[in-house]
Structure formats: structure tokens, C-alpha cells
């Protein structure tokens, strides 16, 4: 029997795997060569660790990383502070079904005394955070043998943000001994996501004052806040920062800038930013199309929609809502009918209430009240305020009293205190010369407002003898 070949040490033959992100096919080939060469049979955990690191760079590392990790355990190769965190991260990304497997790795960390290593503990915090087990994540964080580092704090803060506990995330942030750009980006994005728009902008300003350079997350979040607040000047200031630090901004920043200018009515600036974007996704197109449509540039919005389809970008519900709004503003009823008809059959986009509401408004504006009513009758769901409101507006414009009364009844069922419905009906009756109905509807409105505002007040008076009288 021939003696075994003398192989070079594994760390001399595999390190290129750590320097490059290999595609799966080449990585599997390298793995096979390592196995054939006997690297994986030696009593050395380094070859397995190198391969685990390489597999962890894949988009879906779960099966390969854990199989290699299990192979280490079967060969009695102790997990290391490098391999165990990667195994924990892979198991965490595998979903709830594999949570017991992920939790077992916590036991491995305890048994092998690897918790004192910061990145092992951080991986466990991330594991529990990912599965919204915040009390467990907090316990690991607080029981770290060494003081938590900035990654530990960021991971815990991100967990609270993802579950909507922005106030707790802010407490964690304020208690950090050291912060980095990720810390600021997480708390700013969390505040923006929670609708705390002014607070997010204030945090962004504070970050700049403290000398931190904002990351893409912070910039995208504050651009979104400026767009929602209509804070054009602040948005332009942020755009200036983007120009200075990012010659080729990513798709998220481009989308945020297009959305900012489009929402603020600066359509030419929005188009300029859009055309300069190196990468665009459906959200970038949506921001421009909806912005153009909302500001009355219906024909231009439709041109961009046709470009979007020609470029192979698949429209979604927001895109088609913008297109319907554009048709409404441009008076393109036939095109709107075709788009609405083709939503599910051609674009594979389900019709939602917002699409029906837009069509009701469009048909109502065009005086096609009966067509709008037929559409509502065939809807697979009950109409909401937008659907019936669109019909009522069309009836007021074209004097259709019977349909207006039906729309008003539905609107008052949805919101009995909506005084706008009473006012609209009073106007419709007045235009039709039905003055008795005008008096009746105004009386009904007055009675409802009085009932809604019924209240009492009390006055306390101190008499000369010190007695308190309540009236």
C-alpha cells in the first residue's frame, strides 16, 4: 500500500478563498479539491473555517455553512471564535423553522467557552433580534463578559427599531459610550419609519454637528422625511451633501432625491435627477410617475410609464395608480379604461380599493356616473370613502341627484360625522332647485353637529365663609 502523499499545510493552499467572493460553482469546485487533497481530514480546524468563511459570503449561506460546521463537530474539531459566529448567522437567516438549531449553537458557545469573544456574543444578540426575541437579545447583551462594543449596541438598537420600539431604541442610542455612522443611521431611519419626521431631521442635524459622516441609510431616511414634510430647502441641503460625498449615488439615494423633488412640485429637478441615475428600480420610476401625475403633468407621466415598460421594469400597484391619476388629469378616459382592464391580465397587479377610487373619480369627472356605479356594483369588496367620494364629486359636477343620494348614504354609513357630505348634498340640491331638500339636509347637519358637540362646564365659587359651591 502506497504511503500517503505529503500535502502542504491547508492554510497555504486555500487562503485565496478569503480574498475573493467566488461564485457558487467555483466555490464548490474548490471545496471538492480541498476534500480530495485531504485538507478536510487533517486535525486542524482552519481548512473548515476558511471554507465556512467563503460560503458565508453567498446570498444564501445556510445549508453549506451548517453542513461544514457539523462536519467539524463530527471530526471532533472544536468550533472556533471565527467559525461559530458564521454558523450562528447562517442558522439565524434560515427562518423560524430552524430556530431550534440556531438556539443549540448558543449552548455550543457556552460549552466551548466562546462567549467572552465579542463577535460570538454579537452573533447571538443578532440571532435573537432577528427572531424578535428581544428579552433574550437583551439578556445576552447585558450578560456579555466584556463590555458591549458598538456592534453590540447597533445590533440591539436595530432589533428594537424593527419591532417598532423606537423609544427603547433611542434609549439604547443615548446610552452608547461610542457611536458610529451605523448607530446614527439606525436611529434616524427608525424615527422616520415611526413617523417622527421632525425628530429624524433633528437627529440628522445633530449627527452632522458632532462630526459624523452620514451613511446611505441616514441620507435616504432624511430625504424621505424632507419629502413628506415638504421641506424643500432642507432636502436641497441634503442633496448637496450627497453630491459632495457620492459621485455615483446608489439607487436608494437616487429614488429619495426624485421623490423629494417630485413631491415638492419641482418636476424638472426630479426629472434631471432621474435621468442622471445610473441604476433605477421600480420605486425610482414610481416616485417620478406619481409625482408628475399628482402635479398635473399627466401626459409626461404617461411617457415615462411607456419608457418604464419598454425598459423591462415590471410596474406594481403604485405605478398603475400613478398612471390612472395621470389619465384623470389629462382626461384620457379610454386609456384609463384600458390600463384598468389590463391590470391583472397583462401586468399581473391585483386591483385594490385605491385603483377603484381613482377610476370612480376619473369616470365621475367625465360625467360617466352610471359607468362608475356599474363598476362599484361589480367590485369584489365594499367601496370606501375614496370610491364613493369620487362618485359624489362627479355627481356634484354634473348634477346627478339620484346617484349622489346613494353615494352620500354610503359615505355617511362609513363616517356619520362627515359634514362635507352634508355640504356637498346641500349644494347638489340647490343646483337642482330642490330647496326643501336643502333645508332638510342643513337641518340634519346642524342637529348632528350639535349632538356631537354637546358638553357641560362647571364653575367653582368660593363663598365668604370658605364654602366651595359647584355649579
UniProtKB/TrEMBL annotation:
It holds the Pfam family PPR. One of its GO terms (biological process) is RNA modification. Keywords: Repeat, Transit peptide. The keyword Cell wall biogenesis/degradation does not apply. InterPro entries: E_motif, PPR_At4g14850-like_plant, PPR_rpt, TPR-like_helical_dom_sf. PPR repeats lie at residues 149-179, 180-214, 281-315. Gene3D superfamilies: Tetratricopeptide repeat domain. The keyword Cell wall biogenesis/degradation does not apply. GO terms for molecular function: RNA binding. This is Pentatricopeptide repeat-containing protein. It comes from Zea mays (Maize). The gene is PCMP-E8.
